[in-house]
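Design a sequence for this backbone.
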């Protein structure tokens, strides 16, 4: 007699080993722990920020309410992070393509090590570099921009004499997130199915046409994920922005002037040591806004990635 379907299915089942059960349990516990920690952080921020959310406007630093206090900080955070991402993401993709498909093997390995090293440099080093080297170098170029392109709101001026402007902060943030995005995208390009690349070249495609048909579609979700990872670091960056930026408050698109909005993270770092009472709750409330912003950005990125069907690859 031939075995039934249920018997054949039962015969194919491999008994689960104790190590597999332990690993599965540990993985599940780690995932649950992350959710618990995330919920705990959110609850802490909400509880500590609640007094400032319900306090009269005149008790909030500045005397105009929590919304007026947080809005310039939120604006500065978004302005610096978005412009840094616009500068870094295309350059990171270009560098990843060069390292993967154009550079000689030895040069590619050396550049890979250099990229990984730049990703590990502490943010305070970037801040000191921006303050001591980059800021003075931008004084003359920003003067030229103000004189010749002053009709554009970003270069309205008058230019800062010290160079400690939002433009320098954006450049420093772009340099900081560049190696992170490059490293992730480079690894995604390396995972492109070799058969797809060879098939494109066999059909007569040039190297650039092959890149457009195989690596770029394959790595699209990774490019989005890497960009959101870099954006998350730019949104939460503290010391580099605090060192570079000369803050005077207000909401402005002028990137080269003396009036620069601060960022949420930098403002917390600078104001927290001397704050007491409701001022501390106000800073925590701004941290709650940054927490929510980062969460929304990552959820949006995940939604974009999930909407794209997985690139199947060759069998």
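Sequence:
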């Amino acid at each position: 007699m031939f075995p039934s379907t249920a018997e054949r299915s039962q015969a194919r089942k491999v008994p689960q080993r104790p190590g597999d059960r332990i690993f599965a349990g540990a993985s599940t516990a780690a995932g649950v722990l992350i959710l618990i920690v995330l919920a705990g952080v959110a609850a802490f921020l909400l509880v500590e920020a609640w007094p400032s959310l319900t306090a009269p406007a005149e008790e909030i630093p500045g005397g105009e309410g929590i919304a007026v206090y947080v809005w310039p900080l939120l604006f500065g955070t978004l302005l610096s992070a978005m412009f840094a991402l616009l500068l870094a993401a295309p350059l990171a993709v270009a560098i990843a393509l060069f390292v993967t498909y154009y550079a000689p093997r030895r040069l590619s390995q050396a550049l890979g090590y250099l990229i990984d090293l730049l990703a590990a440099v502490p943010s305070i080093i970037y801040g000191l570099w921006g303050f001591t080297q980059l800021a003075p170098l931008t004084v003359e170029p920003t003067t030229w921009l103000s004189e010749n392109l002053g009709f554009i709101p970003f270069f309205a001026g008058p230019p800062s004499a010290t160079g400690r402007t939002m433009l320098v902060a954006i450049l420093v943030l772009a340099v900081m997130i560049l190696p992170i995005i490059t490293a992730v995208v480079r690894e995604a390009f390396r995972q492109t199915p070799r058969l797809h690349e060879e098939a494109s070249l066999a059909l007569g495609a040039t190297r650039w046409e092959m890149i457009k048909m195989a690596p770029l579609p394959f790595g699209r979700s990774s490019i989005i994920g890497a960009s959101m990872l870099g954006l998350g670091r730019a949104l939460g960056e503290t010391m580099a922005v605090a060192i570079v930026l000369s803050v005077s408050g207000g909401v402005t698109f002028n990137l080269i002037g003396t009036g620069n909005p601060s960022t949420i993270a930098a403002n917390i770092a600078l104001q927290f040591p001397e704050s007491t009472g409701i001022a501390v709750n106000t800073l925590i409330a701004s941290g709650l806004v940054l927490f929510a912003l980062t969460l929304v950005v990552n959820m949006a990125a995940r939604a974009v990635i999930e909407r794209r069907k997985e690139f199947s690859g060759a069998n």
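The longest helix spans residues 18-54.
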